[in-house]
Write a structure and sequence with these properties.
CATH architecture: Beta Barrel
Order of helices and strands: EEEHEEEEEHHEH
Number of helices: 4
CATH superfamily: RNA polymerase II/Efflux pump adaptor protein, barrel-sandwich hybrid domain
Oligomer: single chain
Number of strands: 9
Radius of gyration: 13 Å
CATH topology: OB fold (Dihydrolipoamide Acetyltransferase, E2P)
Strand order of the largest sheet: 1-2-3-9-8-5
């Protein structure tokens, strides 16, 4: 498994978020999905709730919902990954970010997993 950046928090549904609201899917998620071919994300200005879907990601193997790790408003969508979703496979933690969510309550970050806790979660999935 690829190293997990420590500068973000992780949601049980395999999403990550940084303190600035930038969010995406984890390396583990993109690895499980395989070749990503399509991405659909709610428009900027859309309000999202923690744990609720705000888009879909499609690979050759499956279609999965994208779950918001926090509540807030979508501020920006990464148009580069919408146009070329394979970027997520290549670089899920930097170029492959999906959206920026303006958090309505930053304390929700405290409910998410640290990189160590997320590693333990996926180790259980793989076991």
């Amino acid at each position: 498994m690829q190293e997990l950046p420590d500068d973000r928090k992780y949601h049980r549904e395999h999403m990550w978020i940084k303190e600035d609201g930038k969010t995406g899917i984890t390396y583990y998620a993109q690895d499980q999905l395989g070749d990503i071919v399509y991405l659909e994300v709610s428009d900027p200005g859309t309000e999202v709730e923690s744990g609720e879907a705000f888009g879909e990601i499609e690979s050759r193997k499956a279609v999965s919902d994208l779950y918001s790790p926090v509540s807030g408003t979508i501020k920006e969508v990464n148009s580069e990954v919408v146009d070329a979703p394979e970027i997520i496979n290549e670089d899920p933690y930097e170029k492959g970010w999906i959206a920026i969510i303006e958090m309505s309550d930053a304390s929700e970050l405290d409910n998410l997993l640290t990189s160590t806790e997320y590693k333990e979660l996926v180790a259980g999935d793989e076991g």
